[in-house]
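Appendix B, Record 12. Input sequence as logged:
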Amino acid sequence: MSIEDTGLSIGQSAPNWSAESMGQEGETNLSHDALEGQNYIIYFYPKDNTPGCTTQACDFRDQMARLSSIGYKVIGCSPDGLKSHKNFQTKHNFSFDLISDPEHQVAEQFGVWREKKNYGRTYMGIVRSTFVINSEGIITHVFDNVRAKGHVQRLIDALS
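Logged structural output:
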């Protein structure tokens, strides 16, 4: 897969998304507009509490101080509901928001709801991807179809 698979490119305005999320303060509505003036990283993952997704989320958790120090807010997004997100956050002590996207509207806006193949089965689902958005709302980095393990370090290396 390549950057073209998302339909988005570096230098382009980020989609104007909006969705319910679970954060430190509980349920809230989070949107691109609400993050205006902030640098943020939005990463898409298939499912809470699965091995790869947990590894990736824990890596973000473990690097939050570093990401914050270079000016980035982190947001995760999956099709899971808010209750699942709350359990996932509590179990692993995540301090970042998790967007609930059960109808995959945000995922579609970012071009990461795509056909996948696994063990001979073809289905639609989230392709693990990360987008970095600057304070002007412009996409500065796209990491498409990434491996969970080591991704956060590769992201930090690219941002440093």
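The CA atoms of residues 141 and 158 lie 8 Å apart.
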